[in-house]
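Fold this sequence, please.
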Amino acid sequence: MLLRLPLLGIALALVLATGADAQTVTAEQQVMQLSRTKWQWMADKAVDKLEPLFHESARFVHMSGTWKKDRELEIIKTGSIWYKQADVHDVAASVVNDTAVVWSRITLTAEVRGADAKNEFTVTEVFQKVGNDWKLLVLTFSSVRPEHQLQK
């Protein structure tokens, strides 16, 4: 009986250690999930969730212009651009120190000034780690052909 208790303790420690490793999320996985969640928040016009995600110095590059955080939030809130649905086809990420870049191949269905639009984009997002949180610093839409692929 005395021999079984230490073996049981070692076995339990191994199971817990293995479980912890299996649940570890990489920084790349974190920012890719954050990017996907952001698309849903944009579709929902959830500016209360987007405001803390967007870095104070954030820039947004669209087909029709480039603007800062306040303007992007206003556009989303008023629906002058309504990001109805972003179908994410492929995604890649790279993290270097406190900077992460996410590339997403998407088909974006949006309503722009009352008219529906559907476009293929590669979206480049740059995130910066601020404290324990990732903040979106840059979001750029690049118009691409449907056969465009991300190199991983």
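Residues 25-143 form a domain with the Nuclear Transport Factor 2; Chain: A, fold (CATH 3.10.450.50). Confidence is low (pLDDT under 50) at residues 1-22.
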